[in-house]
Amino acid sequence: MNVAKPNLFFSLLPLGVLIALLAFNVTVFGDNSLSFSNQVVLLIAAGVSGLIGKMQKVTFADLMDGANENIKQAVPALLILLLIGSLAASWLLSGIVPAMIYYGLKLLSPDWFLVSACIICALVSIATGSSWGTIATVGIALLGIGKTMDFSEGLVAGAIISGAYFGDKMSPLSDTTNLAPAVSGTDLISHIKYMTITTVPSIVITLIIFTFIGFFHNGSGSLIEIEAVNNEILNLFSINPALFLVPIAVIVLIVKRIPAAPALGIGTLLGLVFAFLFQMPLIESLAEEFTLRGIYSLVLTTLGEGLVIHSDNAFLSDLLSSSGMKGMLDTIWLIICAMIFGGVMDKSGCLATISRSLLKLTVGKTSLVGTTALSSIFMNLTASDQYLAIVVPGKMYQEAYIDYNLHPVNLSRTLEDAGTVTSVLIPWNTCGAAQASVLGVATGMYWPYCFFCIISPFMTMLIVSLNYKIRTLN
Prior knowledge:
By secondary structure, this protein is mainly α. The chain folds into 2 domains: 8-76 and 329-465, no CATH class; 77-328, no CATH class. The chain is 74% helix and 1% strand. It is built from 23 helices and 2 strands. It has a two-stranded antiparallel sheet with strand order 1-2. The model has no long low-confidence stretch (mean pLDDT 84).
């Protein structure tokens, strides 16, 4: 097979087309660009890369082989995404997520509100694997509660986002947490274990900062909203501490190194079992007919299309909804298109040329990690999508880490420390646009208070500079 070596200008051309069109998509479609337009643009950019490959005498079959190889790497993550959707829906029907919200809200007080909000969002995000879902549900309620306590909405949003993105990074259910090791060439459990080295210190510093701010806050406010939400949860669900046995069981399975897909499948089934044990009145009210046929229809609809539980409480109405497997399809579509783009860029020789040019700037392990982090942030700034901030640098630097005798977990951790968490800080990024829209707080108002997201890239650089627990291939 001919080894393609396009020059730097032609190698950057597909990225230039991608960045320009993705940035324009954000201005045209806003946070809805994730639904279809970014996927189309990725395929257009892949086509440009393919044309450059043809100029280098690369056959169409070779280009497709590159796309197929990339998609194969992502298949486990795609399966996990579908299971995440079903698990979130079953945990809503069973009352597990409402129980987390109920007991979490019991912890709130003005002095400890910011820390509590951060911790609650972290727990829900770990349990669901979704920062977006956490912010769009629990986050909205916490924002309203925080405003009644006279906290600025930017500060409250910063605490919510910090906790949600910590949970998103550390949850085995998260799409980005599965995507980063997939493109880096390592496994999920090793990736999460290695991320704790940088992520735990970052969240500890964040919680200390929020504690300090909370104790010097002069506002008071009422807790009427908290009581209203909790009372409505009690009206709709049977809240019992036993519900926490399900997430505990999933965590134990993962700790025991059970693969993520079976663990999530078991978690989904346990959620359904606990729904029938504790929430039969709710099931009866939701089923079209309280027969075997009606219950069967409700269960499959819940897992496939999601569930919406209506409430007279404005806060709770947003909390009690899940999109099921169907809600994962946009993300799955995006990942497939991103992997096609990465595979074609690889086979056309564009990635190799860009990598060689960037690697000329590196003179050691620290500068390699720094270049990776800056590349991820650059992709968030220009390509406006956190998945691309993981996939593109992941493909570009995979071989370089091997050349420096660095285990792939170093790459996957850096991609998350710099790519996942900084996406929400950028107004025109899909994450920044989405969270600003959901919370009704401008990105410019909340980003200075997203301490976890700001600290994470610096923490990953500090750890590698100190040469602390840098895992090698040997």
